[in-house]
Amino acid sequence: MGGHALLILLSVASLALLPGATPLQPSQAWSLFKLRQLLGDPPVLGTWHNYTDFCYGGDYKTASAFVECYEDSVTQLHIMGDPGAGARPLPATFSIDAFFTTLSRLPDLKVLTLTNLGLWGPLPGKISRLQKLEIVNVSSNYLYGELPRGLSQLGSLQTLVADHNMLGGKLPGWLKDMPLLAVLSLRNNMLQGTLPESLKDMLSLRSLVLASNNLSGNLPDLKNLQVIDMANNALGPKFPRLGRKVASVVLAGNKFSDGLPADMLASCYLLERLDVSGNRFVGPFPAALLSLPSMEYLSIAGNRFTGRLSGNASCGENLRFVDLSSNLLTGSLPGCLLAAPGKSVLFSANCLSTAGDDSQSQHPSPFCRNQALAVGIVPEQGHKKSGAKAGVVAGIVLVGALVVSAAVVFVVRKASAPKARPARRLVENASSAYPSNLLADARYISQTVKLGALGIPAYRSFSLVELEAATDNFQVSSLMGQDAHGQVGTLCFFDIYYVSYSAQLMRLLLLLMVRCTVDG
Fold first, then answer.
1. Torsion of CA 35, 37, 40, 46, to 10 degrees
2. What is the pLDDT of residues 480-490, one digit of tens each?
3. 313: burial class by Cβ within 10 Å (0-12, 13-18, 19+)?
């Protein structure tokens, strides 16, 4: 008999340890029903009844609304409206202050999801009362104003997502005071201004999503981040510094205008996604990006990248999408982009040889050369040996256009010449299309240079043999003036020669030789 009594006692004790034996605290159950009332009894909470066991009764739970508990206290609350219906703002009687006051009566809350519910108003600072919060998602509502300073008091917060709201002001510098924050996503809000330099001090931050705001200026050091999405802002012009562990970089639709740092990107072996489309990038396209081992998505569309692609270039085995459209690329599309099935490759509006494939139209080669020159890009002429002490960099023939310094040198030379010496006029054989009074007008030079932007060459190139004949093998008697410009390590000399018309070089008037020495 005593043995049976002990067995019954142990059974009762074990039942007391079952989860269902510890009901939710009545005060917290009341708070949940109060939240439903403040939200206007939305359909998504239609399964909540007075007899609902929120912690251990699974019959009320749906994919859009459920509660998780630990013992007799709520630790997770998820209420998600229908994203397809498009949540309207709650009535004017709604008070977001009262809503978060009620939430604060769930002191053990760690995970909070309130999306597509029509919440409106500034995010209250009293959110700091929820000291145990680790994950907060309040996306797709009508929250406005600046981020409250009270967020910095949430020492356990790891993820903050508030996409698709109307939050404004600058991204606050006090975010650095949140030691565990790893994910910050504020996509499609009204943030403005520059990003704080203190972002580089957030050592725990791994994902930063600030796309579709009104941000501007250069990005701070982002070496700690693995996911970066800054699309559709006004950021730039400098490309940010990235760490080797970065996995996704989206900078589309900004104002970046420098070239891509090829060496830095080549070391990003974990990089899976790179989107720099719709910017103002110039310079050579780093073809090595195609062969990064983890790269899956690459888009450089809508820039001014130059370079000659090789059909023999290699591609990474994970590459699935490539968009090279609307650049100034020449050469042939790499065979690895065409042969493998399952790849989506876009390359229209370049100057590539498509080998009979007219599905993506191309410009003629001169178009890309002229456009590159119009934006100040000198096409590559081949690799040069490093450490070269000196060399001729370029010879530029100016037709009908005169640099200001050359004009000054010529005027001074003419004024100091003996009167008995017959004057030699540079405009004796000039084309009637360039009147003499325009040749000395510096404003006309800029107009001539702009012809390149319209696809019309502003000059033509001459061979070295022609130039030697025109200047009598660069005789000193033909030298009109000389100037020098440069920095430490590099010095360029500008030799300006008079070219006689008897050389029959069409309408050539002046020759500007540029010689640069490099101390290696």
1. 90
2. 554 444 443 34
3. middle
Neighbours of 58 (CB within 10 A): 8
Q: What is the identity of the amino acid at 28?
A: Q
Q: Name residue, tokens 């519910």.
A: 117
Token match 């070089």: residue? 505
Q: What pLDDT is attached to residue 57?
A: 79
Pairing of strands 282-284, 248-250: unpaired
Percent of the chain with pLDDT over 90: 59
pLDDT in tens, 367-383: 998 888 876 665 544 44
**pTM (two decimals):** 0.71
- Among 373, 370, 397, 507, which Cα is nearest to 463's? 397
Cα–Cα dist 276/336, whole Å: 22
Rounded to 10°, the helix 442-449/404-416 angle is 140
Which residues make Cβ contacts (< 8 Å) with residue 88, sequence separation at least 6?
Answer: 118
With contact defined as beta carbons under 8 Å apart, do 303 and 283 qualify?
A: no
In this structure, what token pair is assigned to residue 160? 């903050």
Element (H, E) at 360: none
Query: Cα dist. 424→402, 410, 513 in Å?
Result: 16, 11, 21
What is the pLDDT confidence band of residue 88, given thresholds at 50, 70 and 90? confident
Count of C-beta atoms within a 10 Å radius of residue 276: 23
CA distances from 430 to 121, 460, 463, 508 (A): 71, 16, 21, 8
CA nearest to 33, candidates 67, 68, 80, 56: 67
> Which structure tokens are listed for 88?
């309207």
Please tell me the distance from the alpha carbon of residue 462 to that of residue 296, in angstroms, as a whole number. 45
Pairing of strands 73-80, 166-169: unpaired
The 3-state secondary structure of 370-427 reads: HHHHHCCCCCCCCCCCCCCCEEEEEEEEECCCCCHHHHHHHHHHHHHCCCCCCCCCCC
Residue 242: how many other CB atoms lie within 10 Å:
22
Establish how many alpha carbons lie within 13 A of residue 459's alpha carbon, considering only the half-sphere containing its beta carbon: 21
Nearest to 361 by CA among 337, 325, 394, 389: 325
- pLDDT, position 516: 47
What are the structural domains, with CATH classification, of the chain? Answer: 127-375 (3.80.10.10)
Task: Cis check for the bond before 237: say yes or no (omega within 30 of 0).
Answer: yes
218 within 8 A of 193, measured Cβ to Cβ: no
Which three-class secondary structure state does DSSP give residue 114?
A: strand
